[in-house]
Amino acid sequence: MADNYYSFRNLKFLTHELFKLSELNRFERYKEYDDEAILMALDAARQIGDRLLFPIYEEMDRKKAYYDKGTVFVHPQIKTIMRSLSAGGWIAAADDYEYEGQQMPLSLLNAGLYTFYAANANAAPYAFLTQGAANLIRTFGSEELQKTFVPKMYAGEWQGTMAMTEPQAGSSLSDLTTSATPTAEGHYKIKGQKIYISGGDHNAVDNVVHLLLARIEGEALGTRTISLFVVPKKRIENGELVSNDVNTAGIFGKMGQKGYVAATLMYGEQDDCHGYLVGEPNRGLPYMFQMMNEARIGTGLMATGTATAAYYAALQYANERSQGRPPSNKDVNLAQIPIIEHADVKRMLLFQKSVTEGSLSLLMQLSLWADIEREATGDEKEKAGQLLELLTPIAKTFPSEYGTQAVSASMQTMGGAGYCDDFPVEQYYRDIRVNAIYEGTTGIQGMDLLGRKVTAHNGKSMRLLMEEIHSTIDAAQQVEGLQAYANKMIEGVKSLHQCTMHQMQNAMNEKAEVFLSDATLYLEYFSLVTISWQLLKQAVVAQKVVNQEDKHHDFEFYKGKVYAMQYFLNYELPKTRGLHDRLMSKDTMTVDMEAAFIN
Ligand SMILES: Cc1cc2nc3c(=O)[nH]c(=O)nc-3n(C[C@H](O)[C@H](O)[C@H](O)COP(=O)(O)OP(=O)(O)OC[C@H]3O[C@@H](n4cnc5c(N)ncnc54)[C@H](O)[C@@H]3O)c2cc1C
Q: For a substitution probing ligand 1, which of 130, 292, 435, 438 has the most ligand atoms within 8 Å of its CB?
C-alpha cells in the first residue's frame, strides 16, 4: 500500500545506508535511536499514512473546506488525524522527555513527515504547523505561556498558526501594521488584519493559537520593531475558554490544497483581543525565523512528498498502459508495448525520480545538520549550523519549483489520464504549486541566498560546502564506474565558484538592483549543482553494491539509484551552462527597462 505513494525502500536507504541516522546516538539526547528504533518509527509513520491520511486525500479535495456563518468546516477526519498524530507522539516528537516529547532527531522526524505529506498534504500540515508554533513558544515563551498553551497543542486539541501576512505586507514584513497596545494587566491589546493564515480557524479543534507578528504602539516601521505575540482565538478566564475577539472573515478559494484552510482573520474589532508577548519586545522577527526556517524545510518536504506521490502514480500507470510499438519495428500485428518502454517516457520518469530522490536527500542532509548543530560543540556545531543556514533557501525552493515540473512530467507521462480527475495527478499538480509561494516566494529565497547566505561568515559557509562536495567527488573517484561523473561534478563546482566570484564583484561594483536582479537564476544554478552532489553521494553507496560480483538481491534498486544520478548529471546539470552565460553577462536589461514597456 505505502509504496503507492512513496518508496519505503528509498527512505530506508537514506536513513540507514546513506546518512546512518543511528550514528547520532553518540549524543546523549539521541542514545535511544539505534537502527531498529529508527525503523520502528518509520514503520509507525507508514501505518498512520496508510490508515488515516492517504485514504482521504482525494476526498479532501472534492469536499473542500468551507466557511459558513463564521465557522470554518474541514474534513471530519481532521480531528481524528490531529489526535492520532499526537497519540503516536509525532507532534511533540522532537521535544524533551520531560515535556512529553521523545527527543527524536529532526532527521528522523522529517523522514516521517515526508511520508505524511506524501500521503496527504492537505491533512498532515494541520498537525505540523501546530508543532512549529508550539516549538516557538517552547523556545522563547515564558513558563506560563508554555504551561498554558503547549500541552493542548501537543495533544492536537488546539491548532497552532503562524500569523504574519497582511494585505499590504506579504514579502515585505517590514510594512506590517497590526498593533499591540500595552495594558496595565500585563497583556497587550491586538488590533489588525491577517490574511492567508494556514490553519487559521477550523472546527476540528477547540482553540486556535496564533503566533502573531505585531508592532508595539509607538514603534516606527521596519523589521527591528516587530514583536511576537501569542494570540489565542479563545482565552482562558477563570478556567473557562472565552472569546478573545478574533474573528474569521472568510477563507480563500484556492487552486490546490483545498482541504487545508487559509483564512482572513480580524483581531480586536471590539477592542478586546488579548495578546501575550513572547520573549523581548522588538525581537519578533528573529524569533519567528526559527519557525520560518523549520517551515521552509517543511515546505521542501511537503513539495517532495507531493511530487513523490505523483511520480509513483505515473510510474504505476506507465507500467500498465500499452501504447505504440518500438520505432524500429512498428508491425501492427505485434502487441503494443507498455509506455514505460519508450525512451521519452523513461526520460520523464527519470526526471521525476531524480528530482524527488535528490530533493529528499538534500532535506535529510539539512535535517541531520540541524541535529548535529543542536547537540555538538565547537567547530562541528558551527559547521553544521552554517551549512544548514546556507542551503535552507535551496531546500525550500528546489523541491517546490522542480517538484512542480516533476508533477507536470507525471501528468505528461499519463497523457489524457493524467489531466482527468479519475486519477490523482491533476490534484497533485494543483496541490504542489503553492509551495513556491508560501514561506517566502522563490524570488525572496533567491535574494536571501545571494544577498545574505553566500556572503555570511565572510564566505566561510561556501567554503565549507565546497569541502563537503569535494569529499564526495573524491569518494566517487575511488569507485569504478563513477569517475566520469566525478569529473562532471568538478566542472559544475568550478563554474559555480567562478559565477559566485563574479556575483561578489557585482555586489561591490554595482548597485544592489543589478547585483540581485538575477538572484532567482543564481538560486537555480546553485540548486542544480547541490542536487547533483546529493545524487552523486547516493551513487557512491549504490555503485559499490552494483560492483559486487554476487548480485545483491536488491540490485535493481541500487542500479536505479545510479541511473537517477546519471540522468541528472547528463540532462539537468548541463542547464547550468545557459544560466552561467546569463549570470556572467554584463547586460542589465531587467533593471534598466522601464515598466512602461511591458505595460
Ligand atoms: C495558500 C497560502 C497559505 C499561506 N499561509 C500563510 C500563513 O500561514 N501565514 C502567513 O503569515 N502567511 C501565509 N501565506 C502568505 C504567503 O507567505 C505570502 O503569500 C507570500 O509570502 C508572498 O506574499 P504576497 O502574496 O503578498 O506576494 P507579494 O509579496 O506581493 O509578491 C508578489 C511577487 O512579487 C515578488 N516580490 C515581492 N517583493 C519583491 C522584492 N522586494 N524584490 C523582488 N521581487 C519581489 C515576489 O517574489 C512575487 O513573485 C500563505 C499564502 C498562501 C497563498
A: 438
